[in-house]
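User: tokens in, sequence out, please.
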């Protein structure tokens, strides 16, 4: 598209020489003699926006992706003019803009080149639709790697790939199939141990070529709209991801139950079937917090209705499920059945809230209810109306979460599986066709749903999950990876997809455990559960057409493995909750691919399987049948095998033996891992002790524990507890320092500290500089001790 010789004669146009410039506050405008304007905005010293127009003026500046609540500011900005270029300098980078053609290059302050234009910005008039096809090509150095781009079913490293962003209902997609359900036009480049990011904020169909067409050229382009992109400087990948996540926004904290295990199927009905499923979980002692109702709970698939035959008294049923610890989550799709007796349809029709074709009639398409019209969620009035529709579900009936599906938007029985491109949208006062609005349709539906659920769930926190999303959707919703398949290949895909989503700003993501389409073997389901419990969102979901997929659909061994790993997730809930807190507070992804964890180790650059769960747990799933172990890469540092407590030095590839009821899990030396007792659902138990697994390290390591009331908004008023542990290990002593922030008081009063890998025999214990007898802290040779939670410093002294 960018450099193919067969396209070079299609009329590509380029900026000509700069004839004038203006500096206004944080922005600099460069004007060329062929009416191109480049606006360079310094949002932060390491975050620069580049916006081009070819018509001599800019259209209204509007974005659904950018979090407008974020405040930006730079420390230093200097513009200088040289003979052949202008230079913009911040306290982090230098940007040179060539006077002859607007091509730009970016350097660090040591004059090391980070990124430079190849052809740079160019465009082509779209005679079919009007406007421009906007293009950008960059030079790429040998060895450069590329990551991110959200929901892609391909290798972690995107070098050599060409990918497309167009939200698409891809039922039973396969490896390398593209595009998929989500659109995240953000990637990370890594070269010479320096990372940078590019966010191409353009909602038209976009494309990215990472040196596929030409070896040393990367490019991105869109079928319409502006060339509008943000450059983010690292130099660490952590800095790039955090800055991008700040730019596009972070969610609020979910209630703790949302981080438990969820069970779903298309479909659980009638009520007796729902009760049968939930009762079986409690009977088998497999923890579960949420049960989902798919489209069959509705009356003829009409949204916001209940089947009188299958669910005659939903309020009673939901209350009874809640008594047993189950929260009810229901599906809501965008298609509204054309039925003049149906109140939701009648109201939307009266208020003119449905999407229209270019010539005026309402857009009509077939989905589950039959022929439907579709609300225009880019209209603020429609979003407000849609939010209000959730009152009965949430306030009156007690539903705890809403699941948005089919919102790419998906339409049946049409070749392109979605709306015609001539459909018109309000786009928050920036009227446009579906070509521009398609990729954000699902996000705006999820946004409206979120505001409705939040309004009626208050004072509790909302839970929303969506299939389709655009950058910034994480402010409103969690997500899952769509209609996958019960194959080993898809287990591999799920592992990479969720890692990639995590470093693409959308951390609260999981896959359909076991696969949605087709039927997994017991072995595949067990291996998927073992991976899925380490994903931020954890749900089994399947199509009823392919048989049963509850844990007990397999043999006793699979039931036991499911119980073991789901119970492990419930033990790790305080660790997972802390991960989420760091995500919403600091933009730190909850899952970290090895290249994110240690970009300077080139051995991590092409690793797909291993990832860091939180900050201190290394996970490597088993991705093939009949495995008795696997080779895996342990990143640099010191690690303990979770199952055996065996110590390992990292920075090497090793063979790890595993059993069917294990996968390789390692814990970073020095880590303090918090654990709750196993509960069948969040809030089932009151407990007076928090377990802390402390893995000895000869050196220093920090660990954190975040807790609050597990729901509600008191945490925003300072009623939370954030514990900072510092573990300092020496040859014959161990010091644990504790600092607490926040006003929340936990119910438990003591810590049970399990000492793992302690290399000496303890002869003396001091707490806050006071010597303590062994029996006062229940210390024994089994290497655990129980201490009051109010301690500031624990000191173990060896013989």
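Assistant: Sequence out:
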């Amino acid at each position: 598209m960018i450099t193919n010789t067969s396209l070079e004669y299609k009329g590509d146009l380029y900026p000509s020489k700069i004839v004038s410039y203006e500096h206004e506050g944080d922005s600099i405008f460069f004007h060329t003699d062929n009416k191109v304007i480049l606006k360079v905005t310094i949002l932060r010293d390491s975050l620069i926006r580049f916006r081009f127009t070819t018509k001599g003026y800019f259209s209204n500046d509007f974005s659904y992706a950018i979090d407008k609540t974020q405040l930006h500011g730079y420390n230093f900005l200097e513009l200088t003019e040289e003979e052949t270029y202008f230079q913009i300098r911040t306290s982090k980078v230098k940007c040179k803009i060539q006077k002859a053609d607007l091509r730009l290059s970016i350097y660090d302050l040591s004059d090391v080149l980070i990124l430079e234009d190849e052809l740079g910005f160019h465009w082509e008039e779209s005679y079919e639709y009007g406007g421009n096809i906007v293009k950008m090509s960059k030079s790429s150095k040998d060895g450069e790697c590329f990551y991110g781009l959200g929901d892609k079913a391909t290798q972690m490293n995107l070098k050599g790939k060409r990918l497309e962003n167009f939200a698409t209902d891809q039922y039973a997609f396969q490896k390398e199939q593209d595009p998929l359900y989500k659109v995240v036009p953000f990637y990370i480049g890594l070269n010479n141990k320096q990372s940078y990011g590019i966010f191409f904020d353009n909602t038209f169909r976009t494309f990215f070529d990472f040196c596929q067409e030409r070896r040393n050229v990367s490019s991105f382009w869109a079928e319409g709209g502006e060339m509008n992109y943000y450059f983010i400087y690292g130099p660490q990948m952590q800095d790039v991801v955090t800055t991008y996540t700040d730019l596009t926004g972070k969610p609020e904290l979910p209630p703790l139950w949302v981080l438990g295990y969820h069970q779903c199927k298309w479909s659980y009905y009638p009520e007796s079937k729902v009760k049968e499923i939930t009762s079986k979980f409690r009977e088998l002692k497999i923890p579960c917090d949420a049960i989902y109702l798919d489209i069959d709970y509705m009356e003829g698939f009409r949204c916001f209705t209940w089947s009188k035959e299958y669910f005659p008294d939903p309020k009673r049923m939901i209350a009874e499920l809640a008594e047993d610890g189950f929260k009810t989550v229901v599906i809501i799709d965008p298609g509204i059945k054309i039925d003049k007796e149906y109140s939701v349809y009648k109201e939307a029709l009266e208020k003119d809230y449905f999407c229209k074709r270019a010539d005026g009639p309402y857009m009509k398409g077939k989905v589950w209810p039959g022929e439907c019209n579709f609300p225009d969620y880019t209209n603020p009035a429609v979003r407000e109306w849609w939010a209000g529709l959730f009152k009965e579900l949430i306030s009156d009936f007690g539903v705890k979460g809403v699941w948005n599906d089919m919102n790419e938007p998906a339409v049946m029985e049409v070749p392109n599986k979605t709306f015609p491109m001539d459909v018109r949208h309000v786009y928050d006062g920036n009227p446009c066709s579906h070509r521009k609005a398609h990729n954000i349709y699902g996000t705006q539906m999820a946004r409206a749903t979120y505001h409705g659920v939040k309004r009626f769930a208050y004072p509790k926190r909302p839970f929303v999950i969506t299939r389709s999303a655009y950058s910034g959707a994480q402010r409103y919703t969690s997500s899952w990876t769509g209609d996958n398949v019960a194959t080993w290949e898809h287990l591999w895909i799920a592992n990479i997809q969720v890692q990639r989503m995590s470093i693409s700003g959308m951390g609260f993501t999981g896959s359909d455990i076991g696969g949605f389409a087709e039927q997994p073997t017991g072995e595949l389901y067990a291996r998927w559960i073992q991976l899925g419990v380490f994903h931020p969102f954890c749900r089994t979901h399947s199509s009823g057409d392919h048989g049963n997929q509850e844990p007990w659909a397999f043999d006793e061994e699979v039931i036991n493995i499911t119980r073991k790993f789901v119970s492990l997730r419930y033990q790790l809930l305080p660790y997972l909750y802390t991960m989420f807190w760091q995500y919403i507070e600091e933009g730190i992804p909850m899952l970290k691919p090895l290249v994110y964890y240690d970009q300077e180790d080139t051995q991590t650059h092409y690793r797909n399987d291993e990832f860091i769960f939180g900050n201190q747990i290394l996970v490597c799933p088993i991705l093939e049948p009949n495995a008795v172990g696997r080779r895996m890469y342990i990143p640099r540092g010191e690690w303990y095998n979770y199952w055996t407590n065996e110590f390992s030095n990292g920075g090497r590839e090793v063979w790890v033996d595993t059993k069917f009821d294990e996968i390789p899990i390692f814990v970073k030396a020095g880590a303090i891992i918090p654990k709750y007792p196993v509960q069948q659902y969040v809030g089932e138990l009151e407990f007076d002790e928090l377990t802390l697994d402390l893995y000895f390290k000869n050196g220093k390591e920090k660990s954190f524990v975040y807790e609050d009331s597990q729901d509600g908004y008191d945490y925003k008023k300072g009623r939370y507890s954030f514990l900072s542990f510092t573990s300092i290990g020496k040859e014959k002593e161990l010091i644990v320092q504790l600092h607490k922030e926040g006003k929340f008081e936990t119910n438990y009063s003591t810590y049970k500290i399990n000492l793992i890998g302690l290399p000496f025999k303890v002869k003396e214990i001091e707490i806050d500089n006071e010597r303590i007898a062994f029996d006062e802290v229940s210390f024994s040779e089994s290497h655990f001790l129980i201490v009051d939670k109010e301690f500031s410093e624990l000191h173990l002294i060896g013989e």
